[in-house]
Each structure stands twice: as C-alpha cells, then as structure tokens.
Design brief:
This protein is an alpha/beta fold. The protein has a single domain, classed as P-loop containing nucleotide triphosphate hydrolases (Rossmann fold), CATH 3.40.50. It is built from 7 helices and 6 strands. Strands 2-3-1-4-5-6 form a 6-stranded mixed β-sheet, with helices on both faces. The longest helix is centred in the middle third of the chain and has 24 residues. It is globular, with a radius of gyration of 17 Å. The two termini are about 20 Å apart.
C-alpha cells in the first residue's frame, strides 16, 4: 500500500471523527467454510497490515462476530470507502456436534464447539438486524448455491433493503463454477475470486468502492 493511499486513509478517518460521520458496517455472511475469515483477513492485511482471526478446515472456526474498524480502501479510479468489516460465523440451519468428531475432535470439545457455533449464528443474525449497512455474501464456488440456507439468507438481507455483493470464492479450484452462483442470484452483482490466492481481489475492491456508498 503506497503513501498516497495511507494519506487518504488518514484524511478520511479524520473527517469521520471530526464531523461525527458513522462509518458503514459491511458484514461478511455465508455458510460455514466458504472462506469468510480468509477474505476478511486479506482485506484487513491489504489495507492495514493487521488480521481478523484464525482459519481452519474444521467448520465453524469462527464462532463469534469479529469486527475491524475504520478500514479505507481505494479503487483504481481514486474513489474510496471507509468501513468496519464484520466477520460473522457461518450461518446454517443445522449444527450437529458429530460433524466435528469426524474432524478428530473429542466428544466434549465437539459438543462445546456446536454450542458456541449455535450461539454464533444467533449473534450474526442479531448484527444483521441491528448493525449492518451492506453485505458481502460469500459462497464456495465448488458447492451448490441453491441450498436452503443461502436462499433464506439472501431473502432476509433483501427484506432489510441492504446492498448485497455476491462473492464466488475458491475460484482457483478446478471444479469451481462461478456461473452457477451467478445463475442462482442474478439480481445481485457478483465477483469471482480466490481469497486464499488473492486472485481477482482488486476487482472486488473496485466493486466495493462503487457499491457500498
């Protein structure tokens, strides 16, 4: 990140504080293991050098909402946006502790993780009702997007009249199909990325500066 971008960030943050402007809150939502925290980490690292939280192949590694404040990103055309990124637990209609045992967790730890994950889903939904101004809805491009939880969540977000940016993640994998995700939610803009590899993330930043204003 060059000196010009850092200077713009400082100026933007100064005006937000001085004039009392509320920074918008962008929530990253989606099913478990879609890559939400990986994307949150990449955004925060790219623009602040920090990180949000750990990631794991075990579902529901993120079980509490995590927030990083006052991130300013700047597009190639010079437009910028300052926001808080809100990384949320994976939303699902069913959490079974037995799923975690399959990943090698002992029963006691699996039960605890399932309970915390359930509480995390409730917390994520509370944030959506009260404190979110825009949503990045994250989907694994190798998975079927027409799942009940995705249809339900996009419907809830639409009912709140929040802007939704669909992100088709894991586009670096050979069986990824961003077109399938686009066909599932054609009413919303979509960008296909790999948050792990960083592929197409610059396009995502361009979309964010244009869409979340």
């Amino acid at each position: 990140m060059n000196l010009l971008v850092r200077t713009k960030q400082k100026i933007s943050q100064f005006f937000n504080v001085f004039f009392g402007k509320r920074v918008c809150r962008i929530g990253i939502y989606g099913p478990p293991n879609a890559g939400k925290t990986t994307l949150a980490n990449r955004i925060v690292r790219d623009w602040t050098g920090d990180a949000v939280g750990p990631v794991s192949e075990v579902p529901h590694e993120t079980r509490r909402v995590r927030r990083k404040q006052d991130i300013t990103i700047t597009g190639k055309n010079g437009s910028s946006i300052t926001f808080d990124i809100v990384d949320t637990p994976g939303v699902t209609t069913k959490i079974d502790y037995k799923e975690f045992i399959e990943y090698g967790l002992e029963k006691e730890e699996a039960v605890k993780r399932a309970r915390e994950a359930t509480e995390g889903v409730a917390e994520a939904m509370h944030w959506l009702r009260e404190d979110i101004d825009g949503v990045i809805y994250m989907l694994d491009a190798t998975q079927d997007p027409f799942q009940q939880v995705n249809i339900m969540m996009v419907g809830i977000i639409e009912s709140r009249k929040l802007p939704i940016l669909i992100v088709a993640n894991k586009n670096d994998l050979p069986d990824a199909s961003p077109a399938r995700i686009k066909s599932a939610f054609p009413q919303h803009p979509m960008v296909a990325i790999s948050s792990l590899e960083g592929t197409n993330v610059d396009e995502l930043y361009e979309k964010m500066t244009a869409y979340f204003r």
